[in-house]
Amino acid sequence: MQGLIEQAKTQLWKIVNELATAKRNGRSPNLEVALYEYGKSSIPSSEDYLRMIVPLTNDLDQISEELFKLRTNGGSEFCGAVIDSAVKGLKWSKSTKEYKVIFIAGNEPFTQGNTSYKDACKNAISKGIIINTIFCGDYNSGIQTKWKDGADLADGKYMNIDHNRKVVHIQSPHDAEIIKLGGQLNKTYISYGVKGKRMKERQKKQDSNAMKVNPSVMVQRSVTKSSGYYKNKTWDMVDADKEGAINLETMSEESLPEEMKKMNVKEKKEYIKNKRIERKEIQKKIKDLKTKRDKFVADKRKKSADGKTLDSAIIDAIKTQAEKKKYKFEKK
After folding, report:
1. How many domains does the chain have?
2. 21-30, 58-67, 93-102, 184-193: which range is least confident on average?
3. In which domain, by residue range, is 162 found?
4. What span, in angstroms and rounded, lies between the C-alpha atoms of 15 and 134?
5. DSSP annotation string for 5-18
6. pTM of this structure
7. At what angle do helices 265-301 and 175-186 cross, to 10 degrees?
8. What mean pLDDT comes out for the span 7-16?
9. 295 and 161 belong to one structural domain
10. Do 72 and 99 reside in the same domain of the chain?
């Protein structure tokens, strides 16, 4: 199952970028992601071998950071228990118009554990939460071990993937420039507060993690950083100012970065404004290059025979289900 984790690390940014094209009533929806690990023998059986790593958040760097920490050591997969935990333990929107979904992947029987998967899945869909199941192995084996039944009970989609398949990364002539611009974006972030400096270092670290996997992953991450889904108002003054999360007139000098400590309020506003303008210019360049890259990659992919991996399974399910909730995706 380590192969599944490797695919998740690799494809997080690609999945987010596909979602970034979604609109409902002409507006981009808010995206929140949570992360659980389960089926890990080092977690006590009294806790059903599961752990919530990150609750629902729009902090994508945190999700990436935790994915890169994940390691599997095998064990029983209590699918019913982890679904039940996610349904009851996360702060889901109560709106019936929102697209709410759980993706659960594994290679053990879906029936394991003391919590009934049938009850958990029925409870999920009663709250408008769809369950999509991904069996890591043979399609028919997943049916026999009830992975399809779990999806059927919660209006979801059953899929199977080869979790050990290496993801094919197609490089384009635009990649180097996109990566360069992604690095330049970091310079437009103004860290503030107690955790600001640490979060800016985390941003840089996740760039490094992406590059270590493959430059194409860093390309996808750079594209995400140019989208509206990459939000950092808790530590970046540009995002915080845009969303009204800070008051420049009352902020203490200790919470400011060194270069802003001697500025008056007018100078601070001007400094943030200039960084915002610089960021928008870089983001536009990345988006323009992405359009060219997408065409290049699409032409190349037509000639290849990729098997289904985690990203394609998730993207296919999301598009089909979200469209039923009146979301529209940009045509490529």
Report:
1. 2
2. 21-30
3. 2-168+306-329
4. 16
5. HHHHHHHHHHHHHH
6. 0.86
7. 160
8. 85
9. no
10. yes
